[in-house]
Amino acid sequence: MEWILLLFLGLVAAILGSIMGLGGGIIVVPALMILSEYTTIISGITPQIAVGTSLLIMIFTGLSSTLAYLKQKTVDVKSALVFFIGSGPGALFGVWLNKDIEVDVFLIAFGAFIIVISFILMIRNHIKPLKRNTKGITRSYINEVGETVKYGYNPLIAILISFFVGMFSGLFGIGGGSLMVPAMIVLFAFPAHLAVATSMFMILLSAIISSFSHISLGNIDWYYAMALIPGAWFGGQLGAAINRRMSSEAVVILLRVFLVIIGIRLIYQGVSSL
pTM value? Predict the structure, then answer.
């Protein structure tokens, strides 16, 4: 029974994560924590194991999605590598912060973080991108209607932002895309589809670094991971296909509502255990 449940969880998380460039961990981590607390199907999940297992799964989600997006030619590989200069060390720092965190503190902090992410997703289409720094890196992209869109960023600012994104990835196991995608769209004027695809490639790189660190710390439940991986792989492919063929706004609305509900539930659970 747990294998069917985890397979479905991995599939849904990967589909939504791939569509929005979030990685899926923002769904997997709270789901594992809640299932462990309130059911007998999943047991023995600590914050460290939830995060470590989630990051391992995101290697497969990220690889699956990235391969699909590379075929669509929507991945800015060079920019992703620049961002990884910051997110890689940030992910390791996040793993270090995660190792001694208490369950109640984790639940409250993660719940608040999810609600903030929901708010960012709500306002992302209502904020005009900042003016590009002409002294930084400037790139162009031909969108689906044939228009040439220019975007760009200052490498130092991008690396600094990526460091904090990586830190949240290692700390919460969420992949970092929930912060990086809005940052790329709002701060660097990335087209949305390009931001999502590039984020998934960066998530793949960060997840590899973070998961190896969690493996060394023994923070992986391999039994649950093996059940989650098939869903994560196929979900990554499906999410990339959906992203290409339809507007993701309806999914964003549902995701925002889902994140708020989960965030409030986790905060309540954390406060109750204080």
Answer: 0.79
